[in-house]
Structures
1.
Amino acid sequence: MLDDTKKIFIQESEELLEQMENALLEMEQVPNDAEHLNSVFRAIHTIKGAAGIFGFDAIVAFTHPVESVMDNVRNGLRSVDPDLIALLLKCKDHTANLVEFISGEQEDISETLQEAGKKLLNELTPEQPSELTVTNTNEKIEVSDKRSPSEDHWVISLDFKPDALRNGLDPLSFINYLKRMGEIIEIITFTHDFPCWEDMDPESCYLSFRIALSSSANKEEIKSVFEFALDDCELRIVPPHSELEKYLALLEELTGEELNKLGELLIQVGALTEQELNSALQLQNGVLNDGTTKEIKPLGEILVEQHVVSKDVVEKAVAKQEIIREKIAQETQYIRVDANRLGQLINLVGELVISNAAVKLLVEKHDLADVQEVVSGVEGLVENIRDHALQLRMVQIGETFSRFRRVVRDVSKDLNKDVELVITGGEAELDKTVVEKINDPLTHLVRNSLDHGFETPDERVAQGKPRKGVLRLNALHDSGHIVIQIADDGAGLDTDKIRKKAEEKGLINVGQELSQREILRLIFEPGLTTKDTASNISGRGVGMDVVKRNIDALRGTIEVDSERGKGTLVTIHLPLTLAIIEGFMVGVEQERFVIPLSMVEECVEMNTDEWHLDKNSHYVNLRGQVMPYIKLSEFFGVNYQQSHRGRESLVIVKAGRAKAGIVVDRLFGELQTVIKPLGKVFQGLKGVSGATVLGSGEIALILDVQGLIGLASAKTTDVKTLESV
Amino acid sequence: MSIEAKEHNGAHFLEINDELTIYTAAMMKQELQDVLSKQDELEISLECVSDIDSAGIQILILLHQQAKKKGKTLRFIKHNRQVIDVLETLNLEALFGDPIVLPAKEF
């Protein structure tokens, strides 16, 4: 039995280990990012601490040395290299194993696990920390301090470029103008850089000035003096000490709610002008573009080096940044809520929506005009509450996606493939339950793609593709659905092979005519694999059918697109939530049905003359688009009184790419639909996915649009094959 | 010629009677070079400099440096108000080291 403390420890540890893994993977790209280093350290430190509290000594024993190593790394005593990161990843895995172990029944850690831990720790044991890795920033700081102005004056250095005079500038006039800003305490005209008389071009400018200015103006104002000369001179303005103190005080007072970039912070307090920032950023990028030095210098360092801003101010700003960052981190802390409570809340909100509908109905029935306003107010609030309650269950899909980084990294390494995972749209949100259930199918698809889809680097180069394959995970919202795409630029699916295999398995008849899409869809049939040999990663031909079944269970759709040699795209459509939806209510006789509004394309009158209806094979030609239709009354066998032959309407529904028409008697319009699952007895029902309670207390069935479209298509093809016989 | 030889109370000197600006800089350089190459000791009056800008100042600085380099004696004399202002603004009086006599009428 797991007691509660254990549960909490295990859950927290798992989260921390996940963070640690992400940070480590990030570090593979940017090895010395302090944020990630800290994140790794914090994770392992917290796990150690918690393990100590709960008395899991084995975990403490293992994590303690790891923590020490991370501490050394953090303090610059040990440098980060790919080997260390790989080792730390292994340590993370081992810790996860240990955590998993304590969730089990056994008391003692198994020998093998202990051995593995020892081996890892031996590899980790740091060599003598080398002195070389200690950064030499201290020296730089010394230098810049000497240069900072000792008196309470602005120090302006003004170096004109040779073309300044030719461009119509007169340096003298700028200095005269500067006098208006304050008192020029001292001015030095540099003459030592002048060329010799013979080489001098009398129309070139050789003038440089160093000016000490006593002024109450701020940096931007002083800068504005030289506004027209900025292109033709190098200008540096070093603030006086009092100004520095002002910057520091302002930074102190700054109550930023948002996390600003360093440069923005400095501009905000006036320590930096926008142009200075831009040129520093250019410098930063310039170093990068050079290709000679890959290391990007932090902006702060560049600014100090260029004597644009003093070191004190930069440090203060960085510290401030850190404080704001922490504040934000604190503010976005989560509250752990029991999923059941959340479920209850949503149920209650569902009831509230229904009750509200009942109230509205009564008010309309009795025509209570004065109540109406109040009721519509309440309705708005209920809608808000509903949205917020549903929002509580929403989680970003990014977390699920980023788990695949490790999968991609490990699997591609195992297969000797070079694949990069690109994640986009990670901020798209969907219901927690959906997220949980989508994980397995996604893993399967990603593994499939890595195994079948991508060629080896050499094959890729031979085909003129870049060595590195790109696997894309993308998520986006599309009319009440979330769309998840898994795209690779690998070999694509071999339709001929799929066809052959399918014929062998008897899934299709030999020579049966199939469209490209239909062939591709065969991969979702059980037992079909195109891989000749099964590997431990995939290829056993179980999976794609399971994937499809999982997606179906979530009321979603899955489609595959592929081009030989170009790649494969798998698209999954999923409903955002499984609790409350916007519905569209229709009626057949006295029965009410609800269609998810997001699936309704349009409603048209069922008119034989206008739309070419094929009543035998149930086809309708809607403005040139041919689609199957289904008559709800016939389908559900609603007791049809032949006397009632009113107008019929055709509701066009869409699921993924497929479209179909549903013939109904009446259209009622939009409805807040609280989905109530059907009892076990009815779970096998076709064409119905749930039920909802209407304001009147009546029950309306929610149509399973996808199922209906499938049935409608099947029915029509049945008819077709019959006819063709 | 914008540079003329003058004589006052028995002392010989040159007088610049044109503007010392970007517009005359090229010509000035040429003429000043000519006179400097001919003489080992010369005084140049700035009394009649009608206008002076950064380019003009550069010429004066360079001429001064050149004279020093060649071991010649060069003195600027009779600075007018405008030249004094510029020299003061740029803190160049000390560089030239010439005594600046303020015109009497300004007192």
Note: Confidence is low (pLDDT under 50) at residues 127-150, 290-294, 719-725 of chain A.
2.
Amino acid sequence: MPSQPLLDVRSLVEPDRVHRRAYSDPEIFDLEIKHIFEKTWIYAGHETQVPNPGDYWQFQIGRQPMVMVRGNGDAVHVLYNRCPHRGVQVCGSRHGSGGDALTCPYHAWRFHYDGSLESVPLEKGYRETRFDRANPDFHMKRAARVQRYRGFVFASLDPKGPDLVEWLGDARMAFDDICDRSPVGRVEVVPNCFRVVQRSNWKFFMENQLDAVHPSVTHMSTGYAAADVERKLKRETGSQPLHYHYLSAFATSFDQWDQLETAGYPYGHTLLGGYMGLRPTDADTLEHERVLAAAYGEAKKDEILGRNIHHVLIYPSISVQSPLQQLRAIRPISHDRTMSEIWHFRLVGAPEAIYRRSLWYYNLVNSPSTMINADDLENWQRGQFGLNSDGGDWVSFHRDYGRDRDANGELHSTNGCSELPMRAQFRAWLKYLTETE
Amino acid sequence: MAEPTSVAAATALQTHHEVSQFLFQQSNLLDGKQWQAWIDLFADDGLYWMPPGPEYTTWDGVPSIFIEDRDLMSVRMKRVTHPNAWSQQAEWGTSHVVSNVIVEGTDPASGDLLVRSRFHLLEVRRDDVRHFAGTYQHRLRRVDGALKIVLQRVDMVNGQAAFEYVLQIWV
């Protein structure tokens, strides 16, 4: 085979800027799939998506079609959705139940929920052949590793590498924060997944989530429109529903956003701290506080509700907005197309009114009729448009560069508007692409 | 041509005509981007609802693609008409065709008319064409002589496929 000229990815990333090819070059995208997505921990889904044995939900890891399957009891398996006989996709719906065994629709090879072979028709025909039901070559292949943290299931296609908890590091606070808000420490998925395709590189999504300068620019129109109607309601009824605030808050000034904090953890996970004004003193919140205090005691309740989280990104596949129980997973399709899968959760045992808040956020901000992401997707598409061009080579991540505080490999900034998250993500990106065994 | 043979049949024909004209006018207002006039077709307590799938029977406490009262419709209108609604800088337009209008009956409790129809929507945005199709279910109330929408349920057959981009305006 002719050897490919080695692409030097090191030349694409500088501490304060990144070459446009990181977004526009299909060859770089191939490297990302191989060395990031098909190697590290990727979000499979939440265990409550598959409550009963045989339940499955399809998803992608890089370019691999995977299926998450509930086994017997507590087990959750992640398999390549492919029959070892002739390669046919076994689970055909986005989600469903496999019944007694996962069954290939072509020749009825049947598999246990862990992928091992249950039966093949006419097994006598395999006598004295190399077919061997104990050989994994005749099983649905399993992801190399599957681990869970507080109900959130991750899979890795690489048998080596750090454990999930070590890899998550301090960023696991995203899951602690979302679960601890339940008096029994658990969330349940609301089994609806909205899917939206962006015409831009996956990294636009990851960077945007923690970009505190963009909201008041990108979402100005919605921020003002919602504030306008919010004022009208206040005038007419004396109160304003909290969900209008979810939209009007996007018009918050730069100065206020800059008072938040950002952090970058090893492996590219990043945090935007900030509370979004979500601890008001209305009756619903006070009831939630009472329920949490009864479950955990006052001190722990204050610690839980005092956490300062706006978004946590678990690089490279999910964005978690724990105070509102929202989660978005991204599945890259090509260098300029990305699918996002959008979920929200119910806090088990918490008052219904608290769930209603998550639901409003899900419907208004994260549904396909979003008045927020409409302008994000537009701007990212325009970003891809520009980065595909020869009009300039570099993407600037200079804001507050040189003022990041590095503590044992964690980067911290007291400027919410710092471009620290982007710098931290590219630090990890380069590491993934250069430490390729 | 056969003449209506009874008062009831004549009334039914007239109602069907009036309802059809109402639905055609609604789609004209959308295609003409006459947002306030479109919102004014809704009763004061009217709702526009697009569930995530056909199995949904309520919006209450479950996800929706759209669930908007007149106040939220007003937010959407003010957004798209704001000069800095960036996604509105792209040229776009729609064409709705509404057909298969069936007046299914009258709700005995409220007197509301229950109407089912089919729509096909073509949208152009920049150089891209998208199609959306499905069923409208309207609950219509007569207010001061005019029909008003109490509930418009929109079941889009492609609502469960992944969305290429999003829906900025009502379908």
Note: Residues 164 and 423 of chain A are 23 Å apart (CA to CA).
